[in-house]
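User: Predict the complex with flavin mononucleotide.
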Amino acid sequence: MTVPPAPAFGEPIADQASAEVLAFLARRRSASAMALTGPSPSSAELDDLLRLAARVPDHGKINPWRFLILRGAAKDAFVARLEALAQARPDSPKATAALGKMRIPPLAVAVISSPVEGNIPLWEQQMSAGAVCATLVMAATAMGYGANWITDWYAFDDKALAILGLAPGEQMAGFVYIGSHGEPPQERVRPDLSTLVSDWNP
Ligand SMILES: Cc1cc2nc3c(=O)[nH]c(=O)nc-3n(C[C@H](O)[C@H](O)[C@H](O)COP(=O)(O)O)c2cc1C
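Assistant: Here is the predicted structure with flavin mononucleotide placed in the model:
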């Protein structure tokens, strides 16, 4: 699928209405990470997906996030290191079982929240990293792949994060798993907006 190039800096961006995007959002679903198989996006497609994911709102234009790509033998090596960590955990069977979500999908994109010193509140920088994850899931899905945003224990385990080389102050916003899925995902329960929406009255 062809992704148009980015507009030139300063170019007016008119007419963004898109019935296709609305229809996509009305039906979009994540795929089960354990059901993802090859093929995964090509290197060129992954470049496009990351470019789209990086177009998120970002207070101060400071890019408070970065990407780490896990695939092939490198991902296998990471999983092997995680298996050793899982065995040492008190919840070892559960922690080991959870590794299937990292082992099975052909591609994992680690989205790392990487805050920048300055006057932009940390919370806003972290929300921007979350927006990157959500946009990456949507872009990969729109490109015809299955995708799922997962954290799990290894997103919070200091030893696992050290293996990936996270610096002090950095946090894992999530692993976005991407691949092909044979079976379409089924719709899940959705929130009852009448319990979540209200008018504020002074
Ligand atoms: C920050 C974050 C972390 C998540 N971590 C996990 C996880 O560790 N394990 C899991 O099964 N689902 C996790 N999920 C949920 C999956 O992304 C889930 O499949 C998704 O919310 C399904 O909803 P959707 O089809 O509307 O996208 C996480 C979601 C978010 C936003």
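Residues 69 and 109 are 5 Å apart (CA to CA).
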